[in-house]
Amino acid sequence: MMISIITPCFNAEKTIEKTILSIISSKTKDTEYIIIDGGSSDGTVDIIKKYEKHIDIFVSEKDDGMYHAISKGIEKSSGDIIGWLNADDIYLPWTLSTVQEIFNNFNEVKWLTGLPGFCNENGQYTGIRSNASAYINSLMRKGWYQDGLLGHIQQESTFWRKELYDISGGLDLNLKYAGDFKLWISFAKEADLFHLDIPLAAFRKGRGNQISLKFSKEYNNEVYSVSRLNFLVRLFKKINDKSLILNSIFKFFVFGKTKIIGFSQPQNKWKIVNMYLNCSKNSIKDLRLAFFLYRK
């Protein structure tokens, strides 16, 4: 089963090499790698050309932004499974082989996500959200998986079948900042999200060109425009946005049934289990450690 990975980029010379190398280290013989560059004016294209033998499709031309580039890459792809990795995030060495194995073995899995991981500006892996958590389909369809409520579904750790993308209508190219957020809502209308109980990727924190930081107001406006949040839920979000403690407590008390994919050591194979879990990706220990690190 072929997996296609798309990297959209524009003037990403400071970070794209580590992104490319992370994909090369994870690549299998059934991996198609596509880079769509928006006409970079720095050294990005020169870096990409260093690795051209590992890249199946490379386009460098002016486009209408990240989601337009991703959509273009998906249209050019031939894979049964799709993922995209932005030009400053990284995969882990086992990512693509594991994702392919899961999709090959479980026909019922239409999309999946791993434990969220994070790295810093130097590309050092700095942590994971260590607990499998509940992804409740009914709440996902209403847009509850966002900051201040149940937290993000990490885009770089998420993969899906091409057929699901086509059925759901794909990316909304009218959005500039929250296209992945709306895509998850569309996916949730068609299929359950499976949670793979290992980290698959790392989101680079602190990067200067991080869209959700540079355009946070615009991002939140787009999130609101596609969410079905009533007044009470919006009030919860406003309160939780002001306090990490309150938001953590909120997620501990929201429970639901979710589908976990974990590795059974005695049976030496991946298995799916249905479990009732809360929506927190942090244990009490994780929160205590974060609190003391902040205090220090």
Structure, briefly:
With 296 residues, the chain is α/β, with parallel strands linked by helices. The chain contains 12 helices and 13 strands.
How would you describe the overall organization of this protein?
The chain has twelve helices and 13 strands. With 296 residues, it is of the alpha/beta class. A hairpin with a 5-residue loop joins strand 7 (117-119) and strand 8. Helix 10 (231-241) packs across helix 11. The radius of gyration is 19 Å and the shape is globular. The model has no long low-confidence stretch (mean pLDDT 91).
Counting DSSP E segments of at least 2 residues, the number of strands comes to 13
Distance between the termini: 48 Å
At the fold tier of CATH, the topology name of the domain at 89-295 is Spore Coat Polysaccharide Biosynthesis Protein SpsA, Chain A
Shape type: globular
Task: Tell me what portion of residues adopts beta-strand conformation.
Answer: 15-25%
Average pLDDT metric:
91
Based on CA atoms alone, the radius of gyration comes out at 19 Å
Low-confidence parts: none
Biggest sheet character: 9 strands, mixed
Structural class by helix and strand composition: alpha/beta
